[in-house]
Amino acid sequence: MSKIAFLFPGQGAQYVGMGKQLAASSPKAAELFQRAAEILGYDLAELCFNGPAARLDSTVFSQPALFVTSIAALESMREENPDALLSCEGTAGLSLGEYTAMVFAGVMQFEDALRVVQIRGAAMQEAADAVPSGMVSVLGLDRDQVSAICAEARENEILEIANLLCPGNIVVSGSNDACERVPAVAEKVGAMKVMPLAVAGAFHTQIMQPAVEKLTAALADVPMSAPRIPVVSNVDAVPHRDPEEIRQLLIQQVCSPVRWEDSMRYLLEAGFNEFFEIGAGRVLRGLMKRIDRKAEFHNITA
């Protein structure tokens, strides 16, 4: 017996051309891009379909773009595979993707969530611009080893675990100088690979604290309902029902590590055995294969 969960990608999954096929084949998906343009004040479809890549990759634009593209993929799925959509019993989203999961689960309305995502992206970009900072992927080590690397490479600067993605795939985040010290320390411990990531700054650390105030204000007046299905939180890897608790967790999420591996293990232990990655890219499929190779996985691509 299948127990289905929907998973939504986060920043980094974007690519020029995403959503183009969806909008061409689904009138409802095309309409979503039009509604998004009215809310955002620019032509999101043009940016997603034709780029340029440098603009689409910017945090300010990639967050709304990925959010809308995943919702458009859901609309397309509603037309083509309504049974899977109706039988979905749980959901989660990676960082930004958590907002898509919240809309799917009925916690927030599309328009409200898009406005918040636009403010979130701009506030995170601003916080990143204020402090030269970055993120580094460390492969082949466990979380205790990576914590020890952070402690050694930090040297009174900021360097923290930001993403716990799957076994042997952990991302650290911090000031540029601290990030530059990571490869030498990690290789000494036996890391398989250490790669700086092409991101604007140190997401999911205290460097993002200036974004919290703006995100708190943006979320303050947004009506929220209890989710109709469980949404596993990035912050503590369990679902929550109280809308006010969910609101606070979405605020905390910006400065907290993303516990993706723990979130997936929660779903697997709860009996979920069939997963749909909905939106751009196949990042979440790759992570799940490292967590549980036996899990059935489908991609509803953008």
TrEMBL record:
PANTHER family: MALONYL-COA ACP TRANSACYLASE, ACP-BINDING (PTHR47170), MALONYL-COA:ACP TRANSACYLASE (MAT) DOMAIN-CONTAINING PROTEIN (PTHR47170:SF2). NCBIfam families: fabD. Gene3D superfamilies: Malonyl-CoA ACP transacylase, ACP-binding, Malonyl-Coenzyme A Acyl Carrier Protein, domain 2. One of its GO terms (molecular function) is [acyl-carrier-protein] S-malonyltransferase activity. This is Malonyl CoA-acyl carrier protein transacylase. Belongs to the fabD family. The keyword Aminoacyl-tRNA synthetase does not apply. It comes from the Bacteria. Residues 7-300 form the Malonyl-CoA:ACP transacylase (MAT) domain. It catalyses: holo-[ACP] + malonyl-CoA = malonyl-[ACP] + CoA. It comes from Blastopirellula marina DSM 3645. It holds the Pfam family Acyl_transf_1. The keyword Methyltransferase does not apply. The active site is at S95, H204. Its EC number is 2.3.1.39.
